[in-house]
Write a structure and sequence with these properties.
Rossmann fold, about 210 residues
């Protein structure tokens, strides 16, 4: 499991969503084809190595995709076991993937499949996918990080500003889970990339 600080992405999100964001933003992802075992000790070491403090005054917000699998579910449980009420687990998805559902419907469907999910998840959201292209191409073009385009949704979660009720929002840590692509130029990547290039409303730029 890897953790990557991406302060420049926070600036990108502020630009494309026209919001003010606070705290520190990280990506968390697994190596491709890795059989990494998720446990609390490994996660604790991972965050300590990045000098990330999590307590009642320094909450952690973990953003994950609605498209759960066993790995993501174990990751959620491990974070919750490790940080208890000091971690907020947030599931997000794109509206066009769930056209006939709202966020509560999506969460209810997941709760029927994963035990105790309702006591683990703090928030859920569905957002428009119009910023997908700018986010995932920003990672690929400037950092050579190739994520599944749908993973852009977990990065966008920070703009919802769930942390604004905190006394000091600058003490917040945001961690977005993303899925890496096993081959950076597969059909899905190329399709999203071309859509970004032809998007008339695109305001993407590299000047950060």
């Amino acid at each position: 499991m890897n953790l990557l600080p991406i302060p420049w992405m926070k600036l990108k999100l502020e630009s494309i969503y026209n919001v003010n964001l606070y705290g520190n933003l990280y990506l968390i992802f697994n190596d491709i084809n890795s059989n990494y075992r998720i446990d609390t000790n490994s996660l604790n070491t991972l965050l300590e190595n990045h000098n990330i403090l999590v307590d009642e005054f320094h909450p952690l917000y973990l953003y994950l995709p609605m498209e759960l699998n066993n790995q993501i579910y174990k990751l959620m449980i491990s974070f919750k076991d490790l940080y208890h009420e000091n971690v907020y687990i947030i599931l997000g998805g794109y509206k066009d993937i769930y056209p006939n559902l709202n966020k509560l419907d999506c969460l209810a469907n997941l709760c029927s499949k994963y035990e105790n999910l309702d006591s683990i998840v703090s928030y859920s959201y569905l957002i428009d996918s119009d910023k997908t292209y700018e986010i995932f191409t920003s990672l690929s073009d400037t950092q050579n990080i190739y994520i599944n385009p749908i993973s852009s949704c977990s990065i966008s979660g920070i703009v919802l500003n769930y942390h604004m009720n905190q006394l000091n929002p600058n003490n917040v840590t945001h961690v977005s889970f993303v899925n890496l692509m096993d081959y950076p130029y597969n059909d899905s990547f190329i399709d999203y990339y071309l859509k970004r290039l032809t998007n008339n409303n695109n305001n993407f730029n590299y000047n950060f």
